[in-house]
Amino acid sequence: MSILVIGEALIDIVSSAGSPDRYAPGGAPANVALGLGRLGADAELLTDVGDDFHGGFLLAHLRESHVRVHARPTGSTSTARALLSTDGSAEYEFSLRWDPDASLVDSGEWTAIHVGSIAAFLSPGAAAVDSLLQRGGDSSALLSFDPNIRPSIIGDRQLALARFESLATRVDVVKLSDVDADWLYPGQSADAQIDRILRLGAKLVALTCGSQDSILSTASSRVRVPAGAVKVRDTIGAGDTFMASLVHDLQGAGSHFENVDEVVLADLGENASRRAAITVSRAGADLPWAGEEGA
Fold this sequence. Notes:
Its EC number is 2.7.1.4. By secondary structure, this protein is α/β, with parallel strands linked by helices.
């Protein structure tokens, strides 16, 4: 059985002072699918790309990482311009489309279904996300969600919060960054933010804090996992690597989290942090392959 990822694939246009623009494949859900394929999982991606050069490049890139892509290429491919600061962090400007054809996905069983980022919020494709999550909820698949909040794209905060919480009630795992959490729940501590998401129904919440600790929590156990020391080239794809690692290590768990104690949470967090450290040590969303040191 395979892991189904649902979400956008796009071209990152990376801009930094004093350097020419760099073009690279991206999109948070596409990165998660790519990361899963590179770790040896049987990964599928339902997405929406154009029939232009960028679309063909994306499809080839994903297939080289052993991802089976479901898409009907037409029109122009989405882009995200990443503006890099001197510390390697990125801000984004988007030109987007999101209207996938859910009929391309067969009715097979999956060990996990992951949804994320802009695709979870943007119509008309958000309806496909809901439909496939419903199908996953009727099975034993692990369901996961990473909002990867982009305020300039998803619009009104209250509407976005309602959508986030609606999805969080339907999944087993929610992973988000501290920036995401502070936008959704401003003025609250990390522990309070995590507690609120757990009360919505998620079985496991992972909160990443950049170069600081990450926090992984169930209703009964909570651990803080230090980020590994690494020379950062840029942070593009770091959170997606963390997410792919969690899905890879939890696939098959379904809704059975009774045995996810502090030891298991620490192992999950350490694996994810170690894999993310590989990604940030090199340019762009170049996620690790199975067999790489640390992966």
